[in-house]
Amino acid sequence: MAAKPILYGADWCKKTIAIQDYFKMHDVAYDYINVEQSDEGMQTIKDMNRGKVRFPMVVVGEQTPMKNPSPEELDAALAGNG
């Protein structure tokens, strides 16, 4: 099993909610950072996207951060193949 994923997103974002649902459905423990409530989280996603605010972003361990990953991309990342 890969490292505990970190989800950067916003509570109102449908794509963020879809990823949260994926994690719950697959019983995956994850950390959630609401970028609208965390200056550090907002800066982190800007750093990952060359200064642009783009989310949701998912980070799994040392793997490349994923912008709005598909369920298949999440499956691969969580299996350590991302």
Automatic annotation (TrEMBL):
Q: What is the lineage of its organism?
A: Bacteria, Pseudomonadati, Bacteroidota, Cytophagia, Cytophagales
| Name of the featured protein | Glutaredoxin domain-containing protein
Task: Domain (Glutaredoxin): give its ranges.
Answer: 7-63
Give the organism, scientific name: Rufibacter hautae
SUPFAM superfamilies in the record, alphabetically? Thioredoxin-like
Q: Which InterPro entries match?
A: Glutaredoxin, Thioredoxin-like_sf
State the superkingdom.
Bacteria
